[in-house]
Amino acid sequence: MRGRLSADFVPYVALAALAGLLIGSFLNVCIYRIPRDLSVVTPRSFCPECGRAIAWYDNIPLFSFLLLRGRCRACGQSIPLSYPLVELSTSVLFAFVAYEYGWTPAALKWFLFEAILVALFWIDLEERILPNELTLGGIAVGLIFAFFIAVPSAAGELLLPDAKPAFKSLLSAAVASVVLVAPIWVLGKAYSWIRKRDALGGGDVKLLLLLSVFLGLERGLFATLVGALGGTFIGGGYMLATRRDPATYQLPFGTFLCAGASLAPLLTRWIP
């Protein structure tokens, strides 16, 4: 059923897109509250500017933003454009996951992975942090999934061809963790020693571990390459355009890593 957009399959993709809108609305809550150490459960959604609770009819994903013309009904302050972008991007990613994997346990894994990445993308972009609640929590969830759904990598099969599938999967995650994290960690430490300032935050290392346990080596390398290229060209171009000092400007590397990683599970025809 994977990859076949038949008439019977269209409703599943549409349902995944709708679920993505709803999850995206919740991710907006997480993106605002987690960096501020606020509960993501209570209180109900409120305007960050005036503090007024948002009525349910003003909290419909994507559509409320359009109906309100991007402004809070109570105080008239602009609603950040990131809110509908989070909802829309989550919806699109969920639709592609459903298209690629159908309604399978693997799809559940990738739905969760994409949701975590969307939240981390925006938190790092806006706050320059990668919260442990999402990175360490994501690593734990990824390891649990690894017991039941094979980490997409050939490493485990090559090193332990006769082992049980769960052990092969966990070995693939371990190999990816070493190969992805160690070189970047060493380079970051060397740069920090030479330039006398931090080049790689602990959150970036945890994010790489998160990508490793979900994606494995091959897809993890793809995500890292895309993230590095994005940081170089897009981030570098932004600094040039805004005349930022590269020596002091903190580039949100995690944001670019999340963007590359979000594509990796969806390009199975090109990435093993």
How would you describe this structure in keywords?
272 residues; mainly alpha; 2 domains; 9 helices; 65% helix; globular
Low-confidence stretches: none
Taken in chain order, the helices and strands follow as HHHHHHHHH
Kindly give the count of domains.
2
Radius of gyration: 20 Å
Oligomer state of the chains in this structure = single chain
Question: What is the first-to-last residue Cα distance?
Answer: 19 Å
SS content category: mainly alpha
Number of strands: 0
Strand content: under 5%
**What is the helix content?**
55-70%
Nearest-integer average pLDDT: 89
Main pleated sheet: none
How many alpha or pi helices?
Answer: 9
Overall 3D geometry? globular
Walk me through this protein's architecture.
With 272 residues, the protein is mainly α. The chain has two domains: 1-103, no CATH class; 131-272, no CATH class. Helix content is 65%, strand content 0%. It is built from nine helices and no strands. It has helices spanning 10-33, 63-67, 82-101, 105-127, 132-148, 155-159, 165-195, 202-242, 253-263. The longest helix is centred in the C-terminal third of the chain and has 41 residues, at 202-242. The chain is globular and about 60 Å long.
Sequence-ordered SSE layout with sheet pairings:
Elements: H1 10-33, H2 63-67, H3 82-101, H4 105-127, H5 132-148, H6 155-159, H7 165-195, H8 202-242, H9 253-263
Task: Write a concise synopsis of the structure shown.
The protein has 272 residues and is an all-alpha fold. The chain has helices at 10-33, 63-67, 82-101, 105-127, 132-148, 155-159, 165-195, 202-242, 253-263.
